[in-house]
Amino acid sequence: MGIEEALPASARDKLRAELLAEDHIFIQALPKVELHVHIEGTITAELRWKFTQRNGTPLRIAANGSEIHSLKELEHAMDLLRPDPSRVNNDEERFQFFEAYYEGFACLKTKQDYFDLAMHYYENTARMNVRYAEIFFDPQGHTAKGMSWDVMMGGFREAKERAERELNVKSAWIMCFLRDLSPESAMEHYEAALPYRDIIVGIGLDSNEEDRPPVLFDEVFTRARKDGFKLTMHCDADSKNAHEHIRQCASVVAGHGLDRIDHGINAAEDQGLMNLIKERDLGMTICPWSYLRHTTFEELGPKIRTLLDVGIKVTINSDDPAYMEDCWVLHNMLLVRRLCNFSDREFLVLARNAVHACWASDAVKEGMLREIDLVQQHFMGEQ
Ligand code: ADE
Ligand code: ZN
């Protein structure tokens, strides 16, 4: 990092308010596809409090130590966990994030909790004109606390069906393996998930990337591709060996590489990687707000612009809104407008990129492209 530091939490709050105060009628109106959001990253303090109250379970935040007795106390405890460059360095920040994130899973006990969590996502993003989403979930984090697949997937399935019926939001789920666990555990979970494959479109890899290269999971990803799943993996911003991890994702794993890359922003530093990603026409799921925690405006904007300018299918997404100043896909789009000075026409490119990069049926994709055309006509009077 240069002289400039990443923004502290209070400055990120201020930035969120500033971005929302800017004119965003066009960006709001755009039909959106979200391809990178972790359902467990949408467990807000309110939801956590609601579930623990409803289930009569105690609520404790490890870093805080004592039991939490009110929503206010919970909000305060979660606020203290927000990364701040004046307090934590990059590695600590990542570690602290994962600790807080996995602790949050404990509040989910019943099918109703899983349903409510997913509906909360769908309702929130329907208001931002999200029309289609591919949503990550981390089954190993749930089975580790004894959760049954039927409870978890039953809740997700009912919410998915209701969102499609009542909110005009279509979706599919992406099962992520935790890369800090073993490839054997990934394979066990892969097999256990097969009865639910009608709502699972793809397989991903997330969690702590340190010393866990993509090729470690080659066997399960190769099998998943043979079985017809789409494939993606996280390449977190500025992680150790970021370039090598991106190279393995783009050209090695499962025979010739994956179908998309999550984050992968460091590809912008390497022309060879960008060529590879472009040749394979891989979508990239960029989540700018999450990079703000450990990088600067000066570094970030040019990287995202470079990826778009070379013709890579960049898409804009939210990652973990409950841990990122309550910033959802709309806020992330407003942030990239500020960072990269993107025009409305460039937002049309981003919106169409997400449709092309998603794994919906051709009919669903065509419907979304037509809707984007209509918004273009409405605002620009042309095709
Ligand atoms: N799981 C949830 N959010 C994540 C992120 N940003 N990187 C890796 N794993 C994650
Ligand atoms: Zn992610």
Provide key terms for this protein.
383 residues, alpha/beta, TIM Barrel, five-stranded parallel beta sheet, four-stranded parallel beta sheet, 9 strands, globular, binds adenine, binds zinc ion
Commentary on this structure:
The model has no long low-confidence stretch (mean pLDDT 96). The chain is α/β, with parallel strands linked by helices and 383 residues long. The protein folds into 2 domains: 305 residues, Alpha-Beta Barrel (TIM Barrel), CATH 3.20.20.140; 64 residues, no CATH class. The strands form 2 sheets. A 5-stranded parallel beta sheet has the order 1-2-3-4-5. A 4-stranded parallel beta sheet has the order 6-7-8-9. The structure holds adenine and zinc ion (ZN).
CATH 4th-level superfamily of the largest domain? Metal-dependent hydrolases
Major sheet: size, sense and barrel closure?
A: 5 strands, parallel
Shape: globular
What is the string of helix and strand elements? HHEHHHHEHHEHEHEEHEHEHHEHHH
CATH fold label of the largest domain? TIM Barrel
Q: Report the C-alpha radius of gyration, rounded.
A: 20 Å
CATH class of the largest domain: Alpha Beta
Low-confidence parts: none
- Tally of individual helices: 17
Distance between the first and last residues' Cα? 43 Å
Domain Adenosine deaminase: 31-373
Keywords: Hydrolase, Metal-binding
GO molecular function: adenine deaminase activity; metal ion binding
Organism: Cyphellophora attinorum
